[in-house]
């Protein structure tokens, strides 16, 4: 694990230092759950021991994704994926709860954090991104099977000064849960899985 963390630090440092060059990462995430803020009673958040399905999604609804990083560039790894998200439906001919706009999207507007750790829970830093997690990916992403349109806006530690973009190559949808569900039980229950493709540059 220590050698894997060192590899990540070297990749990040290389991408930051070489200007026009870019370095690719694939980060695999498992046991992902979307906790939807669907109950106005603040005292009930994260309090119910049983599995609690989320309410139906609505435009402008908010939630939090949590998942476990299990591999980086095909090598076993540890860490956490956390994202704050809002459901966004927009269209040029909007009707019935869809926002009027020049773009067409039915996606999550997401701010995400990826933190890879060693077995001793030491962290080389975090990567931070933001964008639409739905619809086609922009030019310059992986050649096949990608979606999402997310920018990597920076990071800390070994990733300080790095920018880039992120897309998804494969995904099993996250399990949807009410934010009243106790998240300490997340790993004992079903969850989604995904493979993030990240191109880092300066």
List descriptors.
202 residues, mainly beta, AOC barrel-like, 8-stranded antiparallel barrel, 8% helix, globular
How would you describe what is shown here?
By secondary structure, this protein is mainly β. It has a single domain, classed as AOC barrel-like (Beta Barrel), CATH 2.40.480. Helix content is 8%, strand content 50%. It contains one helix and eleven strands; from the N terminus they run αβββββββββββ. The protein has an eight-stranded antiparallel beta barrel. The two termini are 26 Å apart.
Number of helices: 1
Mind telling me which CATH architecture this is?
Beta Barrel
Overall strand count: 11
Separation, N- and C-terminal Cα atoms? 26 Å
Approximate strand percentage: over 45%
Mean pLDDT: 85
Q: According to CATH, what is the topology?
A: AOC barrel-like
Query: What structural category do the secondary elements indicate?
Result: mainly beta
User: How would you describe the shape?
Assistant: globular
- Biggest sheet record: 8 strands, antiparallel, barrel
Spans with pLDDT under 50 lasting ≥5 residues? 14-20
Helix content: under 10%
Q: Regarding CATH, which class?
A: Mainly Beta
**How many domain units?**
1
Radius of gyration: 18 Å
Oligomer: single chain
What is the topology, as strand order, of the major beta sheet?
1-2-4-6-7-8-9-11
Order of helices and strands: HEEEEEEEEEEE
């Amino acid at each position: 694990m220590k050698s894997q963390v060192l590899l990540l630090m070297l990749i990040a440092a290389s991408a930051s230092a070489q200007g026009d060059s870019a370095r690719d990462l694939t980060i695999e995430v498992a046991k992902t759950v979307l906790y939807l803020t669907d109950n106005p009673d603040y005292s009930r958040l994260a309090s119910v021991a049983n599995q609690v399905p989320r309410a139906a999604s609505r435009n402008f609804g908010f939630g939090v994704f949590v998942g476990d990083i299990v591999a980086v560039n095909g090598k076993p790894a540890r860490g956490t994926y956390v994202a704050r998200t809002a459901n966004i439906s927009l269209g040029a001919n909007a009707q019935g709860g869809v926002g009027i706009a020049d773009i067409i999207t039915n996606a999550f507007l997401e701010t995400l954090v990826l933190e890879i750790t060693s077995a001793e829970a030491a962290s080389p830093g975090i990567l931070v991104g933001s964008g639409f997690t739905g619809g086609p990916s922009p030019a310059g992403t992986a050649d096949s099977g990608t979606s999402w349109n997310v920018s990597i806006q920076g990071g800390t530690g070994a990733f300080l000064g790095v920018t880039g973009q992120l897309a998804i190559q494969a995904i099993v949808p996250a399990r949807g849960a009410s934010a009243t569900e106790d998240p300490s039980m997340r790993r004992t229950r079903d969850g989604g899985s995904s493979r993030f493709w990240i191109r880092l540059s300066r």
